[in-house]
Amino acid sequence: MRVLVIFALALTFSGCANRDAAYRRSLMAPHPDLPQSDFEQIAELLSHRTRQSITSIETLPSDKVLVYTAFRGAEGPGLSNQFTLAKRDGRWHVVESRDETIVE
């Protein structure tokens, strides 16, 4: 029983560490058209959705952004994700997510 509790705690803490690492890596992405406070909120939100880091952000009309994420060094189809976020009542929300898998 004690081993099971220790294992569960270890998994919990490693999940938090991975989320924090993804957040910190995402903060290094360029975001010239977005205020720093919005960018930090987006990075925090996505760190709960994926372990991938933000690679780029495109601003869209109507307080929306398109965010691309990928693991460091990952290239090629199926290795990145795309999120569409909208700002409502001062907070960012994911309205759509999909992986960038190419279907032939």
Total strand count, please? 4
Q: What's the pLDDT, averaged over the residues?
A: 80
User: In terms of per-residue confidence, which ranges show pLDDT below 50 for 5 or more consecutive residues?
Assistant: 7-16
* Number of helical stretches of at least 4 residues: 2
> Overall 3D geometry?
globular
| Helix-strand string | HHEEEE
Q: What does the largest sheet look like?
A: 4 strands, antiparallel
CA-atom Rg in angstroms: 16 Å
Distance between the termini: 50 Å
Strand composition percent: 25-35%
Adjacency order of strands in the biggest sheet: 1-2-3-4
Helix content: 25-40%
Helix-strand category: alpha+beta
Describe the 3D structure:
The protein has 104 residues and is α+β, with helices and mostly antiparallel strands. It has one domain (2-99). It is 36% helix and 32% strand. It contains 2 helices and 4 strands; from the N terminus they run ααββββ. A 4-stranded antiparallel sheet has the order 1-2-3-4. A hairpin with a 3-residue loop joins strand 1 (53-60) and strand 2. Helix 1 runs antiparallel to helix 2 (36-47). The longest helix is centred in the first third of the chain and has 25 residues, at 2-26. The chain is globular. Mean pLDDT is 80; it is low at 7-16.
